[in-house]
Specification:
158 residues; alpha+beta; Immunoglobulin-like; 2 domains; three-stranded antiparallel sheet; 1 helix; 8 strands
Length: 158
């Protein structure tokens, strides 16, 4: 009986160690992937019709790797607006693109982030019309399912 208990305990401990090692490798791989990073956000306009100006730094190499959109989300993870970027910006880094209108109140805090076609989401900014936009790390890995929500980009223009 003791042998059986020791064997089960040993197998449980070994099984418990394996997922942690895999998670560490996965986290390291994730940390190395390239991303499109928002570096600045500003807004103009009025309630329920704000225009956003978003500056992005991305490791664009051409249509094989480029920032393909930036988006605005509410704090529940709902996609409020997505600005599709139709081509790579290899020679223009960082670059700023405008978009809107976005229907939010002046006090509603929103998240703004960019997406790299090969690496996913990068840095996230949070703010509102009454609070300046600032970099946040509180939303890393947040609402990644929006990556598959339209509108989505078509073919990259060369």
């Amino acid at each position: 009986m003791r042998f059986y208990f020791a064997l089960v305990l040993s197998l449980a401990l070994l099984a418990g160690c394996q997922p942690m090692e895999q998670a560490a490798i996965s986290d390291a791989d994730t940390a190395k992937r390239p991303t499109a990073d928002v570096t600045a956000v500003s807004m103009t306009g009025a309630e329920n019709a704000y225009q956003f100006q978003v500056t992005i730094s991305s490791p664009d190499t051409g249509c094989d790797q480029y920032a393909d959109w930036w988006e605005v989300l509410d704090l529940a993870g709902n996609l409020l607006y997505r600005r599709i970027l139709a081509h790579s910006h290899v020679e223009e880094q960082p670059f700023t693109r405008s978009g809107g209108p976005v229907a939010i109140s002046k006090t509603q805090s929103v998240l703004v982030r960019a997406h790299l076609n090969t690496g996913g989401y990068g840095t996230t900014f949070i703010g509102s019309a009454t609070d300046p936009f600032t970099l946040t790390t509180d939303y890393v890995g947040f609402a990644t399912e929006t990556e598959h929500t339209g509108p989505l980009p078509g073919n990259c223009a060369s």
